[in-house]
């Protein structure tokens, strides 16, 4: 998206210093500066202002600042994060293509990736990178939308009540998706009702001619439907877009018959896990809501590629099968990953290396024990990484996981699962063991 330094100063009520510049693109990461872009230095654990010189040297056309301006074109503002949000809201008014907003406790990124694949059958899609789903990532997604885009797909996350409302006031989606509502971040939200109400905030910003895509299998989602006058399209086993005759190949990739108000279609996914069926139905519902033919939706789902660290099934040392699902974890996604491990057609050992599930509040201990019991019921051995919350399983340090695996003398008939909240850093171990 193209704009001028003068326009930026006007939107942010900032002070323009230096010559006028035409700007294309925005980043908060000096390592991702491209010639002609706007650099936004944010203040957190590191102060982005320390990287302004680097950004200029790499070709940034202008930069925001809370400090005394340096050389080049700058816009001085009271708070760079606030200014970024203001720019995101302003950018939305220049976007005249269908906008899809996706929220939910789990599955947001996978549904975003699948929706991207589906809508790509009809035109160019600009979607959130990775999990750019917060007050920083969402405005960056809007500001970097190419003018030639036919669709915009925005992932929207929440850490507290009101977050989705705030992001929705920036995104103003035409189609709003709620993937599911489960207990995650309960340390912050406090209750499932609070989580449900927060996710439902997206519906209040839908236009009456828009569409709410809702998981019919989750009561906490369906009861939010009264918050919008937009039409509703449901997915799931109880939904209008649903799956039957679900089967899995040796890599846990599902195939199924998708039944919709527009007809039936045979779907074959190239991503692993039973829970991916629901994600695919959500993405299909979005495509159908935009008017895509069922054939195009089917083709799009066959071309899905997920973001990294999500149900990646790879080959480890000695031919071991490895499930790398290390991006994040909560009780629901943890049990889904364990279910996937249990379904692998391996007749040797199945071992889950599980780390902390963060931000569960008073339910932390109970949730970890429940996950361990779920694994044990399926005959899966649990080894805890950097936490004693799972109870009696053996606990190993992150640095000793590799030695632990080497001592097991595993082979091609064995399978490993690695999953934890991102703060654990378990993905670093997986990098060392895959071929």
From TrEMBL:
Protein name per UniProt: UDP-MurNAc-pentapeptide synthetase
PANTHER family: UDP-N-ACETYLMURAMOYL-TRIPEPTIDE--D-ALANYL-D-ALANINE LIGASE
Keywords attached to this entry: ATP-binding, Cell cycle, Cell division, Cell shape, Cell wall biogenesis/degradation, Cytoplasm, Ligase, Nucleotide-binding, Peptidoglycan synthesis
Positions of the Mur ligase C-terminal domain: 310-406
InterPro entries linked: Mur-like_cat_sf, Mur_ligase_C, Mur_ligase_C_dom_sf, Mur_ligase_cen, MurCDEF_CellWall_CoF430Synth, MurE/MurF_N, UDP-N-AcMur_synth
GO biological process: cell division; cell wall organization; peptidoglycan biosynthetic process; regulation of cell shape
Native source species: marine metagenome
High-level lineage: unclassified sequences, metagenomes, ecological metagenomes
A GO term for molecular function: UDP-N-acetylmuramoyl-tripeptide-D-alanyl-D-alanine ligase activity
Listed SUPFAM superfamilies: MurD-like peptide ligases, catalytic domain (SSF53623), MurD-like peptide ligases, peptide-binding domain (SSF53244), MurE/MurF N-terminal domain (SSF63418)
Keyword Cell cycle among record annotations: yes
Gene3D superfamilies: Mur ligase, C-terminal domain, Mur-like, catalytic domain, MurE/MurF, N-terminal domain
Domain Mur ligase central: 102-286
Keyword Nucleus: no
